[in-house]
UniProtKB/TrEMBL annotation:
Span of the signal peptide: 1-20
MF terms in GO: FAD binding; oxidoreductase activity
Cross-referenced PANTHER family: BINDING OXIDOREDUCTASE, PUTATIVE (AFU_ORTHOLOGUE AFUA_1G17690)-RELATED, FAD-BINDING PCMH-TYPE DOMAIN-CONTAINING PROTEIN
InterPro entries per UniProt: BBE, FAD-bd_PCMH, FAD-bd_PCMH-like_sf, FAD-bd_PCMH_sub2, FAD-linked_Oxidoreductase, Oxid_FAD_bind_N
Protein name: FAD-binding PCMH-type domain-containing protein
Amino acid sequence: MLGLSYLTLALALATSPINASPVEPKTVCKCLPGQPCFPSLSVISAFESTLTQPLMHPRPMGSVCFPNDPTFNALKCDAVKSKWHNGAFRTSVPEAAQFINWETMINSTAVDQCDPFGDVNDPSNTCFQGRVPWGVVNVTSIADIQKTVKFASQYNLKLIVKNTGHENLGRSFGQKSIMLWTHNMQGIKFSNSFVPKGAPSGTQGVTAVTIEPGVQWGTLYKAVADRGQLVVGGIGAGGSVGAGGGWPMGGGHSVLSPFYGLGVDNIVEETVVLPNGEHVTANLYTNPDLFWALRGGGGPSFGILTSVTYRTHPAPPVTAAFLVVNTTTEAGRLELFKEWVKIHPTLVDAGWAGFWPYSGTQFFLTLMAMGNPPTNPKATSTLQGFYNKIATIPGVSIDLDVTKPYTGFQQWYDDNFIHSQNGIGFNYTIGDFSGVPAAVSSVLIPRTSFETNTDDLATALAELTDARPFLVGGGVVSKVDPDAMAVNPAFRSMLSDITIALSWNVTTATPQEVLAVEQTVTQWANGIRDVTKSPGAYVNEAEILIPNFQEAYWGSHYPRLRAFKQTIDPKDLLIVRQGVNSEGWDDEIMCKTL
């Protein structure tokens, strides 16, 4: 059975007498398949006839492996298993998320999933539909989005949006939902002099690229590089992170951010379908309040993206530095972190950005500086000074130290994130996993913590056995007005974003064991937050049990965001878990207690 506790809740529409005392809470719910309020087959058929593609009703990807499932097919099962951990494949089908716990219904008593690697021949094992949507609109036009939005609004349906499924809180999936799948909107258009709609006469145009929502960063990076330019974007193995969905709507940090700003700092214009079905343009001159909210307010809370226009930049050569350090004692490991924390602000000011993952006894650096040699005259000496210092620490050994010039960002990206056989140091194509369950957290560490709380921060970092931090702050990021857009103002004072991710055995884990992993992630993140005294987090690296998501993701911007959300989405059509104005809604966005 499918998540019975949620379904029962969805059916229970509570009411209160007007003059009752005390007033009982009222519950309002989305209309779900199988309920009397749900549109009839004839109504659904009439809606489907207006779309460019037939409505899809997917089963979970693993269903073909279950002999007791109508979709069973042994050959297809082998194909599914071979692609199970392929992130690029998972972006190309609507029924797959990057992290499979978001395809699963997990409550206090059951983990309802569709695991093809379990004992599928046991007749008692079932492929549960879980959070895989009831229906999918394969979007190929803006009209498809508008018609679906109006249909979902008319019948109070649970509407979700997916472009690639790179989502750490399952917001692009949902039990008994209808999905707008934008993956197949792949348009890319360049301009040498883009002027935003409504700009004053004489406004100087900028070099820019306009994309539709299905375009992924790997594709876009290459298209831009072929024109001798670069664009600030997300980094992920295989290039499958979407460039036109949650990444820009959540803020979008990048290894290029210290040099050119966050993703949202580079957005010139966006077009969206609003919750009322209207298709509008947003920029600094047209719908500026909407433009403010779209740049960091989280997707798809304020509208469903149909295009985003990014500023592009000249593509200089770059210098990359790779380091692999091994520690043999806890004391040596702690001293290594103390030196890393101390050098952090100076390293940023010297023009370096990048990643510093660590796991067990190993510590890695994958850093980048603009220019070959680096344009910042202090870059080389600053980094070498750090190397020299840690080489003297007992119990610390430098196993790899490579500095390599690249023709530009694109060559560096291709070698280390697309063709890993050419990579150096940490293998990101292995480190970035898909097709597994995961609980994730994010903490934005401010510059002041590196400068004034060095030993405590180093101790907190060393207490984590595994983490994936990103040195993506400072530089241009810190020079933008924190209130210029909705993105978390904590980004403007941070230097590194540390992410923590833990997984579990999908075949055997109980609900209590899953909860224990989620609690551990938050406990570890709290250890960093306690030291930094900063609740700031990245909404695109959402944490399941985060304390006070409103403050964590948006800080002082939240009241303005919520008021605007209530104005443009009074029917709560585009509500997501831990999203703006989601207060009162259950985690599955099925019912709201007023």
